[in-house]
Amino acid sequence: MSWADWIAASWGEWIGMGLTEQVWLCVGLFGQLAFMMRFVIQWITSERRGESVIPVAFWFFSLGGSLILLCYAIHIRSLPFVLGQSFGFIVYIRNLMLIYKKQATA
């Protein structure tokens, strides 16, 4: 399938959706965008410092994107997607807890 065919098929699918499904699709796309932004933030921060760095914002974007994607995964009833986002959510919270614990003791 060419890109043009794929775009035409996607547009046709979008038109055929109800408003509720269009909103949920936008939620899923927004969650994916937020999740992707964590890598952009990490990359920019690392480039500015001249070394590999994981800034606190990375974990907040991970948490926010994961939460949005978890809601979307529950809506579309995808067990693998739900499990993947659930585990990541726990890891992101734990990393933020460790960061703030370290800052409180410093």
Commentary on this structure:
This protein has about 110 residues and is an all-alpha fold. The chain has helices spanning about 5-15, 20-50, 55-75, 80-105. The chain is built from 4 helices and no strands. The longest helix is centred in the N-terminal third of the chain and has 31 residues, at about 20-50. The N and C termini lie far apart (about 55 Å).
Short structural summary:
The chain is mostly helical and 106 residues long. The chain has helices at residues 3-16, 19-49, 56-76, 79-105.
Give the number of DSSP strands: 0
- As a percent range, the share of strand residues is under 5%
Mean pLDDT, all residues: 89
- Individual helix count: 4
Low-confidence runs: none
Tertiary shape: extended
Q: What count of domains describes the coordinates?
A: 1
Largest sheet: none
Q: Ends: how far apart?
A: 57 Å
Q: Share of helix among residues?
A: over 70%
Which value, in Å, is the CA radius of gyration? 18 Å
Order of helices and strands: HHHH
Describe the structure using short key phrases.
single chain, 106 residues, mainly alpha, 4 helices, 0% strand, extended
Topology diagram in text:
Elements: H1 3-16, H2 19-49, H3 56-76, H4 79-105
